[in-house]
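Thought: the user wants the 3D structure for the chain below. I'll pass the sequence to the structure tool as-is, report back what it returns, then summarize two notable features.
Action: structure_tool
Action Input:
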Amino acid sequence: MYKRCGMLVMTAVLMFATPVLTSAKEIETYSAQIVTPMGEEAPVISPTQAPDDEDTEAEKEPVLDGVKLDAPVMLTYKSIKLTWNALADAKGYDIYRSTNKYLGYECIKTINSGTVTMATDKKSLKTGTKYYYKIQAFAYNKAGEKITGAFSKPVKIQCSLPPTKLSSAKVNGASLKLKWKKVTGADGYLIYKADEETGKFKQCMVIEGGKRTSCEVPASEANGSFTYMVKAYRLNGKKKVLAGGSNTKQATVRVFAYAGETYSQKCQRVFGQASYRTYPNALEASRNMQQITVKVWDVGPLGIKISKTKTFSVNRNLAPTVEQIFKEIYEGKEKFPIKSVGGYSWRGNGSTSEHNQGTAIDINPNENYMIEGNGKISSGTLWAPGENAYSIPKDGEVVKIFAKYGFRWGGIGWSSGRKDYMHFSYFGG
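Observation:
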């Protein structure tokens, strides 16, 4: 009713105060004057200005999701390096750790900077323990309250040692020496090698003692072309906790003779010159020989295979090769029995026999006879593989292993027609 009364009063005022207008221009001027109540000025409003009673734009929410941890890295046996990506809106990061992928995470470190992307964990780390890490970004709202983003996916690492740095694989004649950098906290090192064909690494040596930084690889392990790698280890009780693999080094060592050597290479290996030589007498020959002892199998009572040793002499420059040959025969599936074996034997001045040079081997001579081209047996009694256990099969392990190291089997025969089934010679004679 109050509003109605006010309207009547205003109407009355207008009725009595309205002047008499006689032109269109006077009507337009008068209409502009009565838009604003008497005694007030019209406010000036900018076309782009928001009215006072409208809400301003809401405060922008920070983006705190999307932080990710990289794979952790061992710095020492008791410190782990963590890295992650920075978020533009983050004011810092909380790092969590657990020994369980799903449970028990504890905040171990707070980073009060949104631009820092690296931290080191040194908090009571135990060798051999697997640790899981998560990270969470945070910021603050207008009220100063801490707000956080989602946790990253967990990443895992086993606390061990940092990888070793392999410095060199130096070949010196028939030997191979590996050198590496010392790893703080190491109790020892494992040496691995990979064959060029398979590329698969296998352990070949154990080096005890964390202060060791080099080793000589045995001839039995170094011969050939291999790629080498070193892993440091730290003991957790009696268990070896291995570090990651080192960088690799490739080396080719010809400790042993091998199939495919040229005649001059064979001469160089045995005589130290590119041509064949004969020893002038037994004394000179003996000075170039080396006695070796090898493991062999023999046939015991009731036909059971038993282990024995045999000792004989060969040219000293072929000794490692011959030892390796008999090692492989002994470790072979056939367990070929050897009751008699001979190497160096002086056959007199002028003899062409390789036994004079210590480069020929005879095995079980009685059961692997030498037979002339005319059928006459000149040494031994028989050759009956498959019937007699001591006779050497032409396609058996013994022949194949000798051939692998460049030795020719006399059972193949010579141009004269003679066949010598007991005989293996380095130069083929």
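Final Answer: Structure generated. The CA atoms of residues 71 and 155 lie 6 Å apart. The helical segments are 2-17, 24-33, 219-222, 263-271, 282-287, 319-331, 397-404.
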